[in-house]
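Try this one yourself first.
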């Protein structure tokens, strides 16, 4: 990954992570309400990351790539069960977890596209 690609990936991933944090924090008190929106954010992020490396992806292809990384959502589910219902604390935990998972998925996908796998 050259410096130009890394800068583009950084911008895409951080924008998606910021959006995920906003959605996760805003919808923390309603169980599973953020899942469809987060899926859309992460799918769009993967399509955008693919484009950085010249990989053209359909939405279904991007969701397939995303499925490889969704094991990370177990942590989010546990966090939601434990503190998601607490006003303030639940919002902060859900926001940081959604952002962190999106960040991890984004960099994993970027590395995958960079290696051409």
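Now uncover the answer:
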């Amino acid at each position: 990954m050259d410096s130009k690609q890394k800068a583009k990936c950084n911008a895409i991933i951080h924008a998606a992570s910021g959006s995920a944090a906003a959605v996760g924090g805003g919808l923390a008190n309603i169980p599973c309400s953020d899942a469809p929106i987060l899926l859309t954010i992460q799918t769009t992020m993967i399509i955008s990351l693919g484009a950085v490396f010249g990989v053209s992806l359909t939405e279904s292809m991007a969701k397939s790539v995303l499925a490889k990384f969704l094991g990370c959502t177990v942590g989010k589910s546990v966090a939601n069960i434990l503190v998601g219902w607490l006003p303030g604390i639940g919002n902060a935990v859900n926001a940081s977890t959604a952002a962190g998972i999106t960040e991890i998925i984004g960099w994993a996908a970027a590395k995958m596209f960079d290696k051409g796998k």
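Discussion: The two ends are 14 Å apart (CA to CA). The helical segments are 3-26, 35-52, 59-69, 73-83, 89-115.
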